[in-house]
Design brief:
Length: 627
């Protein structure tokens, strides 16, 4: 949370809405002569299993001696153990090792597999030395993640060729199971974590939309895009001919290049097909006729990756895709608060090559710095207006907030499997599209819910809504303020009610650009006589007009009476003034109903009382009534 030097925030946090990733371990420190030790917080799914040895931990070429797993004189002997890592989104493998007398070409290899059959060598150990191994194995997360030790090169030639392994540990981080809005969909897969009618993706900030259009048939080409503090990425291809790779901060999204055209597999490529039936996408190089992307790759806040495709050029939906060989995607490590670099490469191939699309990168943010991220905050800018009100979703048919809690009524039971209210989406999928447009009243690129002046008229939303801003900072209530677990200000004297529409035109004032009136012709001084009638006037168009006079110490509003009329118009009529009103000063106050942040005040005009006829006799002057 960012705290300014002049503002102190008090935040009430409720434990069950904080998304905390749980860490679990699968360990074996070989403290007993057994292949079934479980020394971590979770149990392995299998014991250690020997192959081509006697499967006895007490003796053989592979055994447990002096609290270590020992290998000696290894030819075909190997050992493996499996763990169910499917509930987790990161995993790392570590252990201590030491070798003795392994000659040139003799090594012990550590391998990993996601299916228990196809193994990848992570490292090998040789010579007479020791060390600690530690490596990310998130790419191999599955229900059958398996590690294996075996020789990595030549047969070991002597009985003194040995390697010792100890303190094997797989450390994992699980996807939080938090369900903030209680709709039965955990936040990590819920498109709208707080049920305010705005998807989490739209509630992220510091976003970029980088479109790319790369010419075809020019060989391999790459595009580099940078973004700070990324926490979410969506990559849409409108066309793909016919393979690509995306590198994020030095890690590719998949161990292989992603190939989509059947029959075009090159070295280092892997086919990607629809998960449901294993079929290929049809003509990925032709754009979809209804605007849906041909491919969509999403990297979520936990670095997990999913790929979707539109099966045909006329498809109206996206479907989940996977590597044909089952190789999982890598897990991306975002760099909070720092630069993230995306390198998108279109590989050279035997036929036409090209791709077009858009990369959307964003960060999980907290617009009002109150400690509640926007996607969990029901008032993301602390102006006393619910996000559900500022978004415009309440204008949609079937959407209501009758109990005034900032959450769509019925969202818990009517948000389907993706957590987004059914009435405002085109389908109940992870790639659902809004059926309404989120309001950006002044079209400045910032949604009303995340700016303190939605209509850009210089009058802040909290004031235009009729609420109290005690210190003129744009936030509801005083400074410091307190927010609850939903990000709502609890120290204000009002707020979170229907906002003002002072001109009764069915548009809330905070959405309607307003301004103070302009006076094009100012009132001027007038001279009249006692008992006569005169006027003061100004040229102005305004919703409210009020004439005032100066009583010697302050300005006082005039009301229609025997002496004054037209006090609420642009022309003030003064009837039968008396001599004691000589040099009275008057002015006109003007304002517009939809703009409560200012008035326009006219110039001051004076009333002078004079008789019309003067008779002079030598040095004596007489003032007489003209009649």
């Amino acid at each position: 949370m960012n705290l300014s030097t002049n503002k102190l925030f008090f935040i009430l946090l409720v434990f069950n809405i904080i998304s905390v990733a749980a860490q679990e371990t699968f360990s074996d420190n070989f403290s007993s002569v057994s292949y079934s030790n479980n020394n971590g917080s979770q149990n392995w799914s299998t014991d250690w299993l020997e192959y081509n040895d006697n499967n006895n931990p007490a003796n053989g070429y592979i055994s447990i001696n002096d609290n270590e797993l020992r290998f000696r004189y290894i030819w075909s002997e190997n050992i493996r153990r499996s763990a169910d890592l499917s509930p987790y989104y990161t995993a790392s493998l570590s252990f201590d090792w030491r070798t003795n007398s392994l000659e040139s070409g003799e090594t012990l290899a550590i391998q990993v597999s996601s299916d228990g059959t196809n193994f990848t060598t992570l490292d090998t150990f040789a010579g007479t030395q020791s060390g600690t191994f530690n490596q990310d194995i998130s790419a191999y997360i599955s229900s059958n993640t398996t590690i294996r030790f075996r020789k990595g090169g030549n047969d070991w030639s002597g009985n003194d060729d040995r390697t010792y392994i100890d303190n094997i540990n797989i450390s994992t981080t699980s996807v939080p199971q938090t369900d903030t809005d209680g709709d039965g969909i955990i936040d990590v897969v819920d498109l709208d974590d707080d049920n305010d009618g705005i998807t989490d993706e739209e509630e992220y900030c510091s976003s970029i939309n980088a479109s790319f259009l790369t010419s075809s048939d020019v060989g391999e080409r790459s595009i580099v895009i940078n973004h700070s503090d990324t926490g979410y990425l969506r990559l849409d291809f409108s066309s793909m001919d016919n393979s690509f790779q995306l590198d994020i901060n030095g890690t590719t999204v998949h161990p292989s290049v992603l190939e989509f055209e059947n029959g075009a597999l090159d070295a280092g490529d892997e086919y990607f097909v629809f998960q449901s039936d294993g079929s290929f996408i049809n003509q990925p190089w032709v754009a979809n006729s209804n605007g849906i992307p041909r491919l969509r790759l999403i990297v979520n806040e936990f670095g997990e990756i999913n790929l979707y495709g539109s099966r045909n050029t006329t498809s109206t939906s996206l479907e989940l895709m996977e590597a044909q060989g089952g190789t999982p995607f890598n897990t991306i490590a975002w760099v909070p608060g720092n630069n993230n670099t995306f390198t998108l490469t279109n590989q050279q191939g035997p036929g036409p090559e090209g791709f077009t699309g858009e990369l959307f990168a964003s960060s999980i943010c907290d617009t009002d710095s109150d400690g509640i991220s926007n996607h969990l905050d029901l008032d993301s800018d602390n102006d006393g207006l619910y996000d559900i009100m500022e978004s415009g979703v309440l204008d949609e048919i079937g959407v209501a907030d009758a109990n005034n809690d900032g959450i769509i009524d019925g969202a818990i039971s009517s948000s389907g499997t993706n957590g987004l209210f059914n009435s405002i989406e085109d389908n109940d999928t992870v790639y659902a599209i809004f059926s309404y447009t989120i309001l950006d009243s002044d079209s400045d690129g910032n949604y009303d819910a995340y700016t303190l002046d939605a209509d850009g008229d210089g009058c802040r939303d909290v004031v235009e809504s009729g609420f109290t801003d005690d210190n003129d900072d744009g936030y509801l209530g005083p400074d410091p303020f307190i927010v609850d677990a939903n990000g709502l200000v609890t120290t204000g004297s009002d707020g979170y009610t229907t906002p003002s529409d002072n001109d009764s035109n069915a548009t809330y004032d905070f959405r309607e650009f307003g301004s103070v009136p302009t006076i094009t012709s100012q009132p001027i001084n007038v001279t009249t006589c006692p008992g006569c009638t005169t006027t003061l006037s100004a040229s102005v168009t305004a919703d409210q007009l009020q004439w005032q006079y100066y009583n010697g110490s302050s300005w006082e509003n005039l009301i229609d009476s025997g002496l004054y009329s037209g006090t609420a118009t642009n022309t003030l009529t003064i009837t039968n003034p008396t001599p004691n009103q000589n040099n009275f000063q008057f002015r006109l106050i003007t304002s517009n109903d939809s703009f409560v942040c200012g008035t326009t005040i006219s110039d001051t005009a004076s009333l002078m009382i004079r008789v019309n006829t003067v008779v002079s006799n030598r040095r004596i002057t007489y003032r007489v009534n003209k009649n």
